[in-house]
Amino acid sequence: MRRSRVTTLAAVALTGVLALAGCAKDTGGGTNAPAGGGGNQAAGCKLAPVPQGGGGSAAGSTAAGPKVDASALKVGLAFDIGGRGDASFNDSAAAGLDKAKADFGLKETKELTAAPNETEDAKQSRLRQLAQEGFSPIVAVGFAYAKSVEAVAKSFPNTKFAVVDDDTVKLPNVTGLVFAEEQGSFLVGVAAAHKSKGCHVGFVGGVNVPLIQKFEAGFKQGVKAAAPDAKVESEYITPAGDFTGFQDPAKGNVVAAGEISRGADVVYQAAGASGKGVFEAAKSKNVLAIGVDSDQYNQKTVENSKDVIITSMLKRVDVAVYDFVRAVAGNTLDSLPKRFDLKVDGIGYATSGGKIDDIKATLDAYKQQIIDGKITVSDKPSN
Fold first, then answer.
1. Sequence ranges of the chain with CATH classification 3.40.50.2300
2. 58 close to 364: Cβ distance less than 8 angstroms
């Protein structure tokens, strides 16, 4: 998790049919809500007028891309902390690799995982091991790898690398895979405002770094666009420099429970594996939650809390990894988008469970406003 349609994106189709009412209203959302409510009852937010226009998909399409043969490639995946099974950022990257294996004939892969608060030497050692063993391309999952990728890529100029959530490394054999997280977070902020009964919502970030601040910024802006009078709680599990905030469900639970005790009845988490604790807090307090990165309603590791997950902000790391592998195999790296945003369906929202079916048209209207440039989403939180 961490941080143009030039390439075809392989993602799950999540479509919304537009049926807009252009007037402001005191009630919105439906009444078919999960535990903790949802749907906007009389006590909910006074909602702003829904913008006109919209339609199209709420996530990616599954149209076939160019056929490639990746059977000769050896792909290395260097996970961030939490690795495969985090139900979030790393799992999304893993899903992209799994799909590449199935679709492109990819046979040999290797996955290695970072430890919390490890040194740059440890990161470089992991990447160097993969390069020395002949893996190319190597995908480093997370901005924390940027410096290490730059150092190792200089030593292995014939090995191709990608860094998820960072595009600062300016080497010919390094590709940055970056996202407009603030845009997807805006949309789930709109959803939170429509589903809150008390017009009071919360955000829980894993670590207070610029990447996660993009999630907070977009969420707050989306909430306020839909319901200007809404109250938004915002808190981080750990400060910058302490990356255990992405892998501490117990602390995630405590932070979320604090926001809920102060009145938040919909909580959005961008906290990696710590999000499991946020979901558990929401379930125990009978309120609603919003996932991140992957469609967390369908994630096995958080399935005990799925009844309170109304949607997830989809950050298509799976698509970026899949498309990067395809581009390497087809020698078409120049075709990759500079940023995976709403325009290329690199960001979206999940509809699994049907809990936001009643407001899909509203979300898609806001989505179209962003795509058309009528709404600009900030990547920096307001006070």
1. 74-177, 181-316+342-371
2. yes
